[in-house]
Amino acid sequence: MTKSFFITLLFLTITPLFISGCNFHNKIEKQRGPQPFPSVSVPAILGGQDAAEYAADHFWNRYFDSTAAWNGISDTLIGGVSQKDMATAVREYLLTLWSLPYDKALRAQTHLMSLAEASLGPDTSGYIYDWFTATMESALWHPLSELRSEGLYIPVIESILRTRRTGEHYSTYYQEQLASCMKNRPGTQAADFTFTDARGGFHSLYSIPGEYTLLLFSNPGCPACREIISMLGQSPVIASMVQDGRMSLLSIYIDEDLTEWFKGLSDYPSEWITGYNQDLSVRDALIYDVRAIPSLYLLDSDKKVLFKDISPGMLMLQLERL
Q1: At residue 220, does pLDDT exceed 90?
Q2: pTM for the model
Q3: Enclosing domain of residue 36
Q4: How far, in Å, are 17, 145, 209, 298, 299 from residue 206 at the CA level?
């Protein structure tokens, strides 16, 4: 696996799912105690990307094989494994997915949800399935999660809608999530839009040159935006790619208060392309469905989405690979 992904410890907030009234499972816990997480064993013949791909595809197989004896969660155990060990396993798994091309990561995530669905037998409580869906929502959908990935959250939503575990009351909520995730997802062509620069020049996203386009939706004066701008501006990798003409940095303002936008232009480095979306189509027509500001996208030369709403920390790791 990519070494930097396992050396770098990224913060991941995982919301535990506590279920009350699990006396039966508590009794089992007292009798047997927690079991260690059954880690995947990667064949020694595999290395690098092949090892990471194998680990992702097989990461949860042994765990779901062993949960049949536990069939639920308690205040401290999730399918027989401690909450701390499960949180560690989820983080390691997601970091493994981040080390893979999107299509390979999506395949592994789809397999995980098929295992979770298979645990929903007639004699099971469904608590483990519910824990996985809640945990993946927190890790992949929450706008403040460092490991968020709407593209990898798609199999989770599709599974929730397929199993109808949440009931009809919440189906609209997850359908709206799915619609948002499907927009500009990795591997698809980014939606084009027009913008106006500070001199009144009229441009489009597709007119931006470069092997890569780093698209930032931001607001001038926003503390989090300034922090990201500073981080990107101080990155040697980005500086080298910009200098070599491989990357263009584009910052777009999607609100209507142009007075504030003009006041905040000094926040952006001179080599950046800055503009405002004059017809407000990004915001009002939900072309990009920006759920939080700032929001980063990385596009290739054909304006296909490589990473959607990627966190700054994960972006820097991905740029090192490029």
Answers
A1: no
A2: 0.86
A3: 3-182
A4: 44, 29, 8, 13, 10
